TrEMBL record:
PANTHER family the record matches: GLUCOKINASE (PTHR30514), RPIR-FAMILY TRANSCRIPTIONAL REGULATOR (PTHR30514:SF18)
Annotated GO MF terms: carbohydrate derivative binding; DNA binding; DNA-binding transcription factor activity
Protein name: HTH rpiR-type domain-containing protein
InterPro entries: Homeodomain-like_sf, HTH_RpiR, RpiR-like, SIS_dom, SIS_dom_sf, WH-like_DNA-bd_sf
All copies of domain HTH rpiR-type, residue ranges: 11-87
SUPFAM superfamilies, per the entry: Homeodomain-like, SIS domain
Species name: Sagittula stellata (strain ATCC 700073 / DSM 11524 / E-37)
PROSITE patterns: HTH_RPIR
GO BP of this protein: carbohydrate derivative metabolic process
């Protein structure tokens, strides 16, 4: 591929390096090794800094990035910055040793919760809770790390009312789940960063079904909120390389509590029925 090729033809920076590595000349392989050993530094390195660390010339760095299909070093660095912004752990600046300090971890997690709650309007939460209480059906979905968060909220709401279930059951396709949604329903889509490629298309298809749509996402979500009835933005980033979900969990707990309040006696009656059935089935240990 020549230096004039579009910078996005061959995928991300690391993919390009791995696909090209075996054919790299020795000096360019040293540049590749330097990046692979510390990918989180690539968004901030200059070409001269990378050259010095690899023990090569600036011209070697230039030849290397052009061999990968980038027009310039800045294009390669911008690719790395994009990966960091979208939450790739390899490109997130941070020190895993921080996790061994309970005090540092506690401060980081508390900061995530505070930042998240500062962005959430209690009146909007109450409006969403009222919709969840009165919906014909409530369907929930999340992908990758968002999956367990969707499962958590599903479990909480299912204790309060009937008609709560995952959008796509095991063995179902997404199409079957979407087809079962219509006006009068509420769909909760949890989509934190590192979302699957089809995420925006899914949100649009759901909005076309006439259901009200709640999106729970991070600040990096762009087009999808235009199709949602409500969007709750949660903080996820800390100084550690891995995202934190304590802010999201706090919002989901508040939402479940507000839904229980909106349901009133109906939530107590449903929970009583659930508990009676649990006793009858001896499902929980005493």
């Amino acid at each position: 591929m020549t230096a004039d090729a579009p910078s996005d033809v061959r995928g991300s920076l690391l993919r390009r390096i791995h696909e090209t590595y075996a054919s790299l000349p020795d000096r360019e392989a040293r540049v590749a090794d330097t990046i692979l050993n510390a990918p989180s530094e690539m968004p901030v390195w200059t070409a001269s800094e990378l050259a010095a660390l690899a023990g090569v010339s600036n011209a070697t760095v230039s030849r290397f990035v052009q061999r990968l299909g980038y027009r310039s070093f800045e294009d390669a660095r911008q690719d790395a910055r994009t990966l960091r912004e979208t939450g790739s752990p390899l490109f997130m600046k941070g020190d895993m040793q921080m996790a061994s300090s309970h005090a540092d971890l506690l401060r980081a997690e508390a900061g995530v919760i505070e930042t998240t709650l500062a962005q959430v309007d209690p009146r909007v939460l109450a409006e969403i809770a009222s919709a969840l209480a009165g919906a014909g059906q409530v369907r929930l979905i999340g992908f990758r790390n968002s999956r367990f968060l969707a499962d958590y909220l599903t479990a909480q709401l299912a204790q309060l009312r009937a008609g709560v279930a995952p959008l796509a059951l095991e063995g179902q396709t997404l199409a079957e789940g979407i087809a079962g949604v219509g006006p009068g329903d509420v769909v909760v889509v949890i989509g934190l960063r590192r979302r699957p490629a089809h995420f925006g298309h899914l949100v649009r298809l759901l909005s076309e079904r006439g259901a009200r749509l709640l999106l729970v996402a991070d600040k990096g979500l762009r087009e999808a909120p235009a199709y949602a009835t409500w969007t709750l933005t949660c903080a996820v980033e800390t100084a550690l390389p891995l995202d934190s979900y304590v802010g999201v969990m706090t919002v989901l707990r508040l939402l479940a509590a507000d839904t229980a309040e909106a349901l009133g006696d109906a939530a107590l009656h449903h929970l009583n029925e659930v508990e009676t059935l649990r006793d009858s089935l001896s499902e929980l240990e005493r």
